[in-house]
Every structure is written in structure tokens, then in C-alpha cells.
Amino acid sequence: MAYSGTTKKKYFQMKNFLLLLLLIGSLHASAQQINTKLKQQLDSIMQVDQELRKLFTSIPQEEKEVILEKFGYTAKDLEQKGWEIVAKQDTIHIHRVKEIISSYGYPGKSLVGTPTNKAAWYVIQHSNQLEKFFPLIQKAGEEKEIPMTLVATMEDRILMYRGEEQKYGTQLKSGVINDPETGERKWQFYFWPIRSPEKVNALREQVGFERSIEEYAESMNVTYKKLKLEDVK
Fold this sequence. Notes:
mainly alpha, 2 domains, two-stranded antiparallel sheet, 12 helices, globular
């Protein structure tokens, strides 16, 4: 059966309209899956987590005072209490994140969107319960709820806390070490020893890191040195 030019035009217009409706419906369904209330809670948690840590960086004193005032502290409180201010808030956050995980599982991309899917990870990463939650973090990475780079970063921190070599070169420390280049024992920032330095860049690429260990070191203004565990103990 032959169609006139006008009929064909109406057919394609209707087809495009139906496709547009399907697309809008799909986007609407996706938006409905996001738990907006939970997202707002986690966004607030992540903001506080990151903001308080700025107090221990080289930001201007005026900016520190603004942050302190926001949370009900003074410059004197910071001088007297120091990291205790952050630790107190971390305790509150990990308690809330435990409640969220108990109710929803890991609050990943499909539940709260991005970058909110990183919020619970930050809280866990800053707690003393990494090993307890690592299987959950690993599962979230495998299911693409969080980037695998975060899984690798947490795994490295766990290994470092155990006194073992890290895999991906994500963990830096500062302290007195035996410098392998000079033979001197001195204070410096350094990369915690890496298990297989010759494979580290390939491993980094596998999990999604965009920079090599050398490029990462340069961005952190740290000289990358291949240390052994005996150098840092």
C-alpha cells in the first residue's frame, strides 16, 4: 500500500512523538528511584566531613574562622582540642551511616545518585571500621554503585593499617624513614611501600585511575620513592 508524502510525514512525526514519550517516561522512572531525602542527608554529611578537615590544611585563617563559627567553635577551641573536633563529628557520622546501611544497604548511585554515592565511603574511610565494611564496599564497586578507584583506595588503607604493602599506591604518610636514595634517616612525606612497584601503574589503570603513580606523586608535590617495609619501620 502506497502512502502520500503528507501521510508519511505524519507517521514519522507520531513515531518520534511516541519515542519522546518513552524517553521521558524512562527518565521519570529513573528520577523516582533516587531517594531525595536520603540524598540530602548524605550530601550534608559529606560536606561536613570535608569541611572540618580543611581546618588542618593551609587555608587562610579567616576561612578557618568561618568554618569554626559555623560549627560553634572558636580559634581557641581548635588550638586546645585539635583533631578531637573532627573525631567527634566522625563518630556521629559513622553511627548514622550504619543506620542507613542497615536500612538500605550501601547507598550507591542507583539510590542517591552521584556524587552522593561517595558520602558513605568517605565516612567509612575516616573511621576505624574499614575491615568490617570492606566487603560491602567491594560489592558496591563490583555492582558499579561506586567507582572501583574508591574500593582500591580503601583496600590500600587497610593493608597499610595492617603494616603490609599497598597495591595501588594511593596511601601517603609523613614521618621519619630511611631514605633509600641517600641512606639518611629523616622526616618526609612518602608513599607507603608498594607490593609490586613494577605492576602498580597497570593495576591503577585496571581499576580506573587516570594518572600513573609518578603523575599522582607530582600532583601531590611528593617525590615518589620505592620504599620497603623496613625503610618505614
